[in-house]
Amino acid sequence: MNITTGVQAKPVKAVIYGPEGIGKSTFAAQFPQPLFIDTEGSTTRLNVARTDTPTSLAMLSSMLDELRQNMCGYKTLVIDTADWAERLCIKAVCEKNQKSGIEEFGYGKGFTYVYEEMGRILNQLTDIWEHGANIVITAHAAIRKFEQPDEMGAYDRWELKLINAPKCNVCAMIKEWSDLVLFANYKTYSVAVDKDGKKHKAQGGERVMYTTHNPCWDAKNRFDLAPELPFEFVQIAHIFAPQQAVQMPVQQNVQQTAPQTAVQTPPQSVQPAPQQTPPQNVQPEQQNVQQTMPDTDGFEDMTPRQLNIPDSLPKELKDLMQANGVDESDIRLVCSQRGYFTYDTPMTAYPPDFVMGCLVGAWAQMLPLIRENQAVPFV
């Protein structure tokens, strides 16, 4: 049993939600070196790094698996937005179970399936967070009626625009998962316009963010932030200072020690060496290797593989095939091995429910079978 004490410098799991157009994506773009997974296509006007827009839950899950292994130097992963990612979950659940809508399941079963899929996405994001990346989830806000169990009457409050069912509350699950929940809104004032004070009009419109819970909205933070702040990234920039402080000493030590070892003697002994004999001896060896290698493997004339993806296939499936380098023949081979169809059956003849339910919906299970066939050399 390992017991630790003190504050640990960990990445941040943040949720930013508010009404449309308030600047959630722009705010998230100021996090350290962000990479966007833009599920709704709202970052086209921002100068940010982004992946392809996921058109299916399988494509989104595949992206997260790849980023867990390699974040490509980015320090923050932004999911923009959560409610559009939830739509991908709803679509995948309906297609997998051949339902036209989530309400067709009955008795809230469809919401339970969506809740489980969103939980898997959070698990993948947690894996990326454990590898040292900040996670930011943006979401739209919606006004809902709320009633306290111990009080009479109901009132309106802002909440995340996600499923809020009693037994499968996606909204509550994301709030529990995060370290920082910021609610951004326009601050307005009611000003009397007559002497009696009976007529009022709204003024203001300043953008602010709330960091603590209020009967009118959900918010929280674990960084001792003020309850209300201007909606500016500079207000929370100090949260990421510990992460930079941990990295800076390492860079300074390397810069100080490397010049000391390199300046003493190596320049005099290393420079003459390549001028004497190695160039004459090394170049012929390299030339021999270049001449003999093509003769031994016989693949010197091979060109990159051109994928055959029929245009009539659903866009969700075409995106998955293109992103993973999968050809039509690869899928036909797996389907024939599993006994679904013969190899000669074109994919355009597959039933739509099979394409969306078994190929797109179960892409995570289909792709390893395709990779096994691709790894077998043809004789």
The gist of it:
The chain is α/β, with parallel strands linked by helices and 379 residues long.
Describe the structure.
There is one protein chain. Strands 1, 2, 3, 4, 5, 6, 7, 8, 9 and 10 form a ten-stranded mixed β-sheet that branches. Mean pLDDT is 81; it is low at 245-302. The chain contains 13 helices and ten strands. The chain is α/β, with parallel strands linked by helices and 379 residues long. Helix 2 packs parallel to helix 4 (109-130), helix 4 (109-130) runs parallel beside helix 5 and helix 11 packs across helix 13 (363-375). A hairpin with an 8-residue loop joins strand 5 (134-146) and strand 6. It is globular and about 85 Å long. Helices cover 42% and strands 17% of the residues.
Note the topology:
Layout: E1 13-18, H1 24-28, E2 34-38, E3 49-50, H2 57-69, E4 76-80, H3 82-96, H4 109-130, E5 134-146, E6 155-160, H5 170-177, E7 180-192, E8 200-210, E9 220-221, E10 228-230, H6 241-263, H7 266-270, H8 272-276, H9 278-297, H10 315-324, H11 328-337, H12 352-360, H13 363-375
Parallel strand pairs: 1-5, 1-7, 2-3, 2-4, 4-5
Antiparallel strand pairs: 5-6, 7-8, 7-9, 8-10
Helix pairs in contact: 2-4, 3-4, 4-5, 11-13
